[in-house]
Amino acid sequence: MGDRFFEEGMKLEAIDPLNLGNICVATVHKVLLDGYLMVGIDATTSTSGSNLFCYHASSHAILPIDFCKKNSITLTVPRGYDAQTFTWETYLKDTKAEAAPARLFNTDYPGHGFSPNLKLEAVDLMEPRLVCVATVKRCVGRLLLIHFDGWDDEFDQWIDHQSPDIYPAGWCELVGYQLQLPPGTVHLAENQVVRNKKTKPFVYRRKKKRRVFRKRISQDPKSHQENQLAGDTNTTTNDSQSPCPAAPLVQLKAEPEEREIVRVQVKVEEIETLINPPDQPQKVSQCEVKQEKAEQMIQSGHQVPEQSPLAGMIHQTAEKRETAENGGEHKGQAERS
């Protein structure tokens, strides 16, 4: 960028960000870091700084002085000056300011394929959600003057030829985005669609009489069946006379009759039953077991082995217990009797 850079108070020409179709007289009010500038439009006066805009030094929106004069573009001048008689020499003397050097601006023109009257699709930078049908109105160096079809010239916008806000014709249809058509063309398109539609030939069709079936519940099921049979015979005779085939009849189901529910009282009686505890198993002595074995051996003809004195004592005690128990039972029977 050379030895000198933009300084405060330097004069230049800039695109008005609030009216992108106008190029105005502007002033550098502040130099920021990384090549950014705070630029103000001289045609607007504000002490609060609300008329300042941030541009980068390489932006296409800032231009050297006399750019509009060289390219036959109307320059928006400050108040008190006439656009027809305005000159930068007198304005710099009146404001005691210095013009920004032309080498600081990005005015390189590598060439592009745009030319006037080309159709494209462009974003309305004042309403960035809208993509409209547009036409290239002028080509000045890197700048393109975009005109939105169907709108006045005051809505035109200056943009760079490498701007990401311009697209080829058919881009919206390709990506599925809504394209804003020019005013008045919507009705023409609708009329064209209506003309292309073919009218269907009129075909006369005989209307069929609709039969209304009423749901009828009879108390007597026999009469209901008789009525149904009579209706079936009538329909068969009518169908035989009419040339059109009859639709199948739908038999209506009779609703079930309501039956009375009688309450039944159930008497519940409780019976107490005594449950005796299980009998305790009787203990069988060892002597009784041995005696039974001996008797079995005698019956079978085998000899019974001699018992030891201890076995004899056990046998005697067992006999005494049996006699005592038998005597107790006899006493109990005598007392009961």
TrEMBL record:
What cellular component terms from Gene Ontology apply here? nucleus
Q: Which residues form the MBT repeats?
A: 1-78, 86-182
* GO terms of molecular function: chromatin binding; histone binding
Mind telling me which PROSITE patterns this protein's record contains?
Answer: MBT
Q: Where is this region: Disordered?
A: 211-246, 277-337
Q: Which domain of life is it from?
A: Eukaryota
The alphabetical list of record keywords is: Repeat
Q: Which Gene3D superfamilies match?
A: 2.30.30.140
Protein name listed in UniProt: L(3)mbt-like 2
Question: What taxonomic ancestry is recorded?
Answer: Eukaryota, Metazoa, Chordata, Craniata, Vertebrata
